[in-house]
Write a structure and sequence with these properties.
heterodimer, A: mainly alpha, two-stranded antiparallel ribbon, 15 helices, B: alpha/beta, 9 strands, 12% strand
């Protein structure tokens, strides 16, 4: 106990110049070990609850359950995946939602965050909270709410559209509109989160920059484009990557709203993984889908990092 | 440190721990050594996973069971359907941990659990369950048993198709329900009903966005003696019978007599209560009880009969699912669990309270033959739903082979049907595609090859 306290007090910078004393080297509280000691609980938890499942899932992805017996089948599941038309349907749907929804959501997030940050806005805490609330809403409540909104018969959205002589729109039951419904639901769900991240970043932009620009005669748009946007870049990179990863793993919305239908129009990779694992008990194949998804996410994240690096230069 | 042990007390503590550990080990290994899990006392607490209506039936049996075994406490948990399937799957994948003492398992999941998680369900022959075999319809008993005769579940519900119709709507349209013998005639009647009353013949979740909507296809296909798979497990969903069923469904849709409703429990209740009118409701026999409980105001407006045949003179009976009670091997109180299952399902006394408590249609033959079971019902205008279901079960219905790939086939069929109903796809082409997809996913053969 005493040794540990001593080493915490010791300053490593001065330590390095002195030859290490024998007493210190023999103790568990060696300065170099101290950070690892603090990290140990996290490392153990990581090994048990992250690394082990990762490796175990990889092993499972190389097996198949044949008549209750788990058999090693090598890359069979991956070969099957490469030839599975439904997997490509899921991949196509996921990417379509990705390219439509993520830019839409991020643009909205920027607009919201600028509004949240504005001195002109009253009751700012109220607005910030109300846009953040959807993030914490439970999956079931979320599903019930949007089913009630988007019901193609007497849904609230269709009733409102009907009042201005539009529709009715078959929100959840038409292949095209089902995708739109998913995009709308996701935007509602996650825009607030991105807005809060942007807001934090906005508050780190020095106010003097705006004052100086104003003195130089820059208008509002010029100030936004030349000060706000560059200032937001780190947050933009973060949200682009997080939203991309989140969308690629998309599961909640198609699960509660459309069941992946109609006719697989909203089948995402996450839904397909779930179906294979929990509906068909094909855990080997589900794990292979999981690893294919991991690979896709890794490649796309890498590309995004590269692209943003180019821009910041 | 305040808490210190001197040498002597530390020694005592170590010894005590060692004794406890040894005792625990002995305690654990004992059941497998002398099979006392099947001997044990009928006492303690057991937990049952089920869902709303069957749960009500089981709860009703508790007081009668406790009269025989006062030391037993029974916790019936309404896990919800379909949530229960995922919960059971997760438990089985985890080697049985977290599972309760009794599981209520659907006939369509039984094969999957037994095949994919061997050894997770108790072979009830250990408790002498094979003596009950003759008391249940053989088809239902067979679907709850393994290929080697091991008994994994006792039939709780055995459902014949319940074909319900609205007497008031048929009367208003001037259509005599008793004159309808085939589905073609029924669709013609549907057109008349729509013209005269504006009511759809039936509702369907065309996009299947809330649940699968394959019930009608399964019924029509069964009425032609076919199913997704044949007895060898080869794929038959695109057989002549299957295609004809989907053509009938398409025809009804093209005639404009099918309402589009999400396949949820709430929309079903709305139809039962006449809030969204339908002229017919083909469903399981269990629907009779649900109608009486959930739509009491509709008494006298619902009738029940055998479903029309697909071909003139064809069979008018189909099995519409069923459920089992099973015991997971991880259960610490298997003896008590078995005694309760045996009481609830394998004795006339138990069956009566279960049936009165929940209205599930039983498979226990002495119950079906018992006095008063097929009594006319006031709700159904003096008709007897039970007599109709018993007549159905007596017909020579085909053995339904769900196989372990039923969920895949169901999904493929639902998607094909959605393509036909929403995008006007050709039924035969859509079913061929679906069958090939199932073959590609499962390595099963197409029976047509």
């Amino acid at each position: 106990m005493n040794a540990l306290l001593e080493t915490v007090d010791a300053r490593p910078a001065t330590d390095r110049r002195r030859p290490p004393s024998r007493r210190r080297r023999s103790s568990i509280g060696h300065p170099r070990l101290t950070p690892y000691l603090f990290l140990l609980p996290t490392i153990l938890l990581f090994l048990a609850f992250k690394l082990y499942p990762y490796l175990s899932a990889f092993w499972v992805s190389l097996t198949q359950n044949v008549g209750g017996v788990t058999a090693f089948v090598g890359l069979d599941n991956y070969i099957r995946l490469a030839q599975d038309p439904l997997f490509y349907t899921a991949l196509g749907n996921t990417f379509l939602i990705l390219v439509v929804q993520v830019p839409l959501m991020l643009a909205l997030g920027i607009v919201l965050s600028v509004a949240f940050n504005s001195m002109l806005l009253k009751w700012r805490a109220f607005w910030r909270t109300s846009y953040f609330v959807p993030i914490v809403m439970g999956l079931v409540a979320y599903g019930i709410l949007f089913r009630a909104l988007f019901d193609s018969g007497d849904g609230i959205v269709n009733e409102m559209l009907g009042a201005v002589d539009i529709g009715p729109i078959p929100w959840l039951v038409d292949p095209f509109w089902a995708k739109i419904s998913i995009v709308l639901a996701m935007t509602w769900h996650y825009t607030g989160q991105n807005a809060i991240i942007y807001l934090a970043q906005l508050q780190s932009i020095p106010g003097e920059l705006y004052e100086a620009a104003q003195v130089d005669g820059a208008n509002g748009w010029q100030r936004f484009w030349n000060i706000t946007m560059p200032g937001l870049r780190p947050a933009l990179l973060l949200t682009v990557i997080l939203s991309t990863i989140g969308t690629l793993q998309l599961f909640d919305e198609p699960y509660v709203l459309t069941n992946g239908g109609p006719d697989n129009a909203t089948l995402t990779i996450g839904m397909y993984l779930y179906q294979n694992g929990f509906r068909y008990f094909d855990f080997g194949y589900a794990s292979a889908i999981g690893y294919a998804l991991t690979l896709i996410i890794a490649v796309i994240s890498l590309i995004q990092f590269r692209l943003f690096k180019e821009k910041t230069r | 440190m305040r808490f210190t042990l001197n040498k002597r007390s530390r020694g005592v503590a170590v010894t005590a721990t060692a004794i406890a550990a040894v005792a625990a080990l002995v305690g654990c290994s004992a059941p497998s050594a002398d099979n006392s899990a099947t001997d044990g006392e009928v006492a303690g607490k057991i937990t049952i996973w089920t869902w709303d209506a069957p749960g009500d039936g089981l709860k009703a049996a508790i007081p009668a069971f406790q009269e025989l075994h006062p030391d037993v406490e029974i916790d019936v948990q309404d896990v919800g359907n379909p949530a229960i399937w995922e919960k059971i799957t997760t438990g089985m994948a985890a080697g049985g941990s977290g599972l309760p003492d009794v599981l209520n398992i659907g006939i369509d999941y039984m094969g999957n659990y037994v095949e994919k998680f061997p050894g997770e369900l108790v072979d009830l022959r250990d408790f002498g369950a094979d003596e009950l075999a003759d008391e249940f319809p053989s088809g239902a008993w067979k679907s709850g048993s393994g290929a080697d005769g091991a008994v994994y579940g006792i039939p709780y519900e055995v459902n014949a198709t319940g074909f319900f119709y609205r007497t008031d709507i048929f009367e208003q349209a001037g259509v005599d329900i008793d004159s309808i013998e085939t589905w073609d005639q029924l669709l013609e009647a549907g057109v008349t009903i729509k013209e005269k009353t504006g009511v759809n013949l039936y509702n369907q979740d065309k996009a299947a966005s809330a649940a699968d909507s394959a019930g009608l296809w399964q019924l029509l296909t069964a009425l032609q003696g076919s199913f997704y798979f044949d007895e060898q497990g080869e794929i038959t969903m695109n057989s002549e019978a299957g295609v004809h069923s989907l053509e009938l469904i398409k025809k009804a849709n093209d005639l404009g007599i099918v309402g589009d409703e999400q396949g949820s429990w709430d929309t079903l209740l709305a139809s039962l209560r006449g809030e969204t009118d339908v002229a017919i409701m083909p469903s399981g026999g269990w629907m009779a009880g649900v109608m009486e409980n959930e739509a009491p105001d509709m008494a006298g407006n619902w009738g029940v009969r055998l479903p029309p045949a697909v071909e003139p003179g064809g069979i008018t009976a189909a099995v519409n699912g069923g459920t089992y009670l099973s015991i997971p091997t991880e259960s610490k109180n298997q003896r008590t669990a078995w005694e309760f299952v045996n009481f609830a399902l394998g004795t006339l006394e138990g069956q009566e309270v279960v049936y009165d408590g929940g209205g599930m249609f039983p498979g226990y033959k002495p119950m079906l033959e018992s006095e008063g079971f097929a009594e006319p019902s006031e709700y159904f205008n003096g008709q007897s739903p039970n007599a109709i279901f018993i007549a159905e079960l007596a017909q020579d219905t085909p053995v339904v082979n769900y196989t372990s790939d039923y969920a895949r086939a169901l999904k493929a069929l639902t998607d094909a049907q959605t393509r036909v109903l929403l995008s006007g796809a050709d039924p035969e082409e859509a079913l061929n595609e679906a069958a090939e997809q199932v073959a590609q996913q499962t390595n099963r053969k197409l029976a047509s090859d």
